[in-house]
């Protein structure tokens, strides 16, 4: 098994919140630990807290995964982060694995061998009724057909609602009561089309976004209208386009069927991760890019309230295993097939990245031409400078072309200070208009984790 090494920014990117990252840095000192050691696979140590018994902290570096005897409900806790940061600064001495660490690793391996597949979609993250002893393919097909019929009815109602909205004009959209959008979304939820319901809810957010809401609202309504038109011709479409519409509506694809497809080999460079909470469900997007040809991939993880997300690959790491892609015309979403640990790899081995925003815009236009319902895509550019103008942050390339930077005020100043007016390599995501920096590197090899989880 390949066990990765981690740099400080990658470790801090694993923190559940800024407070945990700061507390972890405070514990990254030798004086805070009675001892710490490693066997190459695991890292462990004992940290003296306020009580008489020290906290036992252990990290499975192949995950990474964490365990600590402290009472914190955060994952990873400050002790796990502090231990990894200390190891990154002053590598731990090699030692024989103690029983309390070895037993934990053995339990993890046993659970991994027998655990059921992780939820593939938010719908699958919800508790499910007990399965029948023997699967009935005919009954399953009838259930799927019935759900498609319900979604089709909901889409027809959405088409009438959109037609009314356009006929009455969009000027009055800001004066619409919240129930105007909420009721339309609720009808789609009742029709078992949660993905379309989410898009309708976002219309209200676009109207409330301030200047420039008109073209954004019209664009979003046009995409919904295109979805209605596509759904009306569902049976005549290609399987890939049908998969696009199912994903848009929020219908789950069987994880087993995805894993049964021919995988695409790596290695894949991790562009970064971002976590958000929406309707009580925590969602994390992790973007990957294959250096050989620029192929993008998206790993999605979901967790219900009160449950932690599985550990994400560290930004900048090299994911060597193959990926199986969900069906669709663009095929971005994927599953890791072998789930091997991510190693550091060598950035110098990667072909040079594009250095112009025009290249990113052209790639976005090409992706939209394939899948017009695309909301976000991965981004990897070099030679970008972060600057602030009129109270807003943006990125600029060597030609002077610029694009807004999606960041809070505090985040923007932090990224600006890191760049210092120098060209940076920025890995992240964008929506064709705004760049969100998830991982930054300067010419000296210094790195910084960007806005990977400021909404959580």
Provide structural commentary.
The protein has 4 domains: 8-114, no CATH class; 137-249, no CATH class; 255-341, no CATH class; 349-449, OB fold (Dihydrolipoamide Acetyltransferase, E2P), CATH 2.40.50. The model is unreliable at 115-120, 124-134 and 452-456 (pLDDT under 50). The chain has helices spanning 8-12, 18-26, 78-89, 99-114, 122-125, 137-168, 178-190, 194-207, 213-232, 239-249, 255-259, 357-370, 409-419; strands at residues 33-38, 42-47, 55-60, 65-68, 93-94, 268-278, 281-289, 296-303, 318-319, 323-325, 334-336, 377-389, 392-396, 402-404, 424-430, 435-442, 447-449. The strands form 4 sheets. Strands 14-13-12-15-16-17 form a 6-stranded antiparallel sheet, with helices on both faces. The chain is an alpha+beta fold. Strand 13 (392-396) and strand 14 form a beta hairpin. Helix 6 (137-168) packs antiparallel against helix 7 (178-190). The protein is globular and about 70 Å long.
Descriptive key words:
17 strands, alpha+beta, 13 helices, disordered C terminus, 456 residues, 22% strand, 6-stranded antiparallel beta sheet, 5-stranded mixed beta sheet, 4 domains, 36% helix
Q: How do the strands and helices of this protein lay out in sequence?
A:
Layout (H helix, E strand, L loop, with lengths): L7 H5 L5 H9 L6 E6 L3 E6 L7 E6 L4 E4 L9 H12 L3 E2 L4 H16 L7 H4 L11 H32 L9 H13 L3 H14 L5 H20 L6 H11 L5 H5 L8 E11 L2 E9 L6 E8 L14 E2 L3 E3 L8 E3 L20 H14 L6 E13 L2 E5 L5 E3 L4 H11 L4 E7 L4 E8 L4 E3 L7
Parallel strand pairs: 1-5
Antiparallel strand pairs: 1-2, 2-3, 3-4, 6-7, 6-9, 7-8, 10-11, 12-13, 12-15, 13-14, 15-16, 16-17
């Amino acid at each position: 098994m390949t066990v990765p090494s981690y740099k400080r920014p990658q470790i801090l990117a694993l923190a559940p919140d800024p407070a945990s990252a700061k507390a972890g840095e405070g514990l990254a000192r030798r004086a805070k630990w009675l001892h710490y050691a490693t066997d190459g696979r695991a890292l462990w140590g004992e940290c003296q807290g306020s009580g008489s018994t020290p906290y036992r902290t252990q990290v499975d570096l192949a995950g990474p995964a964490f365990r600590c005897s402290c009472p914190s409900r955060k994952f990873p806790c400050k002790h796990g982060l502090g231990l990894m940061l200390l190891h990154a600064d002053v590598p731990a001495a090699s030692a024989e694995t103690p029983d309390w660490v070895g037993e934990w690793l053995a339990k993890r391996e046993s659970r991994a061998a027998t655990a059921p597949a992780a939820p593939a979609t938010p719908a699958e993250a919800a508790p499910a009724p007990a399965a029948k002893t023997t699967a009935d393919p005919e009954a399953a097909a009838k259930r799927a057909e019935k759900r498609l019929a319900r979604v089709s009815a909901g889409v027809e109602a959405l088409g009438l609602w959109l037609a009314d909205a356009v006929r009455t004009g969009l000027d009055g959209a800001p004066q619409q009561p919240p129930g105007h959008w909420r009721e339309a979304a609720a009808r789609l939820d009742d029709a078992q089309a949660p993905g379309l319901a989410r898009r309708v809810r976002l219309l209200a957010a676009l109207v409330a976004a301030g200047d420039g809401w008109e073209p954004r609202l019209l664009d979003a309504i046009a995409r919904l209208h295109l979805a209605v038109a596509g759904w009306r011709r569902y049976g005549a479409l290609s399987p890939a386009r049908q998969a696009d519409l199912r994903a848009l509506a929020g219908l789950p694809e069987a994880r087993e069927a995805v894993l049964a497809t021919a995988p695409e080999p790596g290695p894949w460079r991790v562009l970064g991760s971002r976590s958000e909470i929406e309707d009580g469900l925590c969602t994390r997007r992790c973007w990957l890019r294959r250096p050989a040809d620029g192929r993008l991939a998206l790993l999605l993880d979901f967790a219900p309230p009160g449950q932690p997300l599985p550990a994400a690959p560290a930004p900048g790491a090299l994911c060597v295993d193959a990926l199986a892609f969900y069906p669709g015309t663009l095929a971005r979403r994927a599953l890791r097939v072998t789930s091997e640990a991510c190693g550091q790899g060598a950035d110098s081995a990667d072909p040079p990245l594009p250095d112009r925003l025009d290249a990113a815009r052209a790639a976005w236009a090409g992706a939209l031409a394939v899948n017009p319902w695309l909301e976000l895509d991965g981004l990897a550019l070099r030679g970008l400078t972060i600057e602030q103008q009129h109270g807003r942050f943006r990125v600029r390339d060597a030609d002077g072309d610029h694009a807004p930077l999606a960041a809070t005020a505090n985040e923007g100043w932090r990224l600006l200070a890191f760049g210092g007016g120098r060209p940076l390599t920025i890995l992240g995501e964008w929506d064709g208009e705004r760049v969100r920096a998830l991982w930054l590197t300067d010419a000296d090899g210094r790195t910084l984790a960007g806005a990977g989880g400021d909404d959580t």
